[in-house]
Amino acid sequence: AYSSTKEESTGRPVGRYPVPNKKDMPYDIVELMEEVEMKTGFLPNVFKAMSHRPAEFRAFFAYYNAIMNKDTGRLSKADKELIIVATSVVNRCPYCVVAHGALHRIYSKQPALADQVIVNWKLADLSDRDLAMLEFALAVCRADNITEEHFQKLERHGFDREDAWDIGMISAFFAMSNRIAHYVDLRPNKEFYTMGRTP
């Protein structure tokens, strides 16, 4: 299934680097890919692209898992996806904006919000809490000088220091993802564009 870098629909490659044949991939990576494909109905291209470097694939998805699937803290799945969308716009990453916009629509059940954030987060239908969260995430994303004031502002909206770490870490990890997607020329799967748009 993963023998080619071709995207079936457009004939465009998934990215600049070759995707190894499934039979040449380490078993644990094939297993993870099959699990994801079964769960979502397709295999997101980031898995194909990262399979070019098995050791980095494992480290990347282990870290992803540690920050995105932890069940402590005050960030919901939708909150995390919104952070990724807002910061990936600043980092000009079409893959992450499209993929995580889709996940945000699914988790939040708000089909328009990610699109609003993509165009102009300050004009989006966000709560004060959401605005505070994105403001901190974007300060980290832009490598602004982070001051005590940033943390105090978050605290006023119910986020403690550990939540600030979570917001900052998601922003930082996806800054890396955005840059990887950039130089490998990672293309969004066509499925992402329509996911979660209609009930």
From TrEMBL:
SUPFAM superfamilies: AhpD-like. One of its GO terms (molecular function) is peroxiredoxin activity. Signal peptide: none annotated. This is Carboxymuconolactone decarboxylase-like domain-containing protein. InterPro entries: AhpD-like (IPR029032), AhpD_core (IPR004675), CMD-like (IPR003779), Uncharacterised_peroxidase-rel (IPR010195). Transmembrane segments: none annotated. Residues 54-102 form the Carboxymuconolactone decarboxylase-like domain.
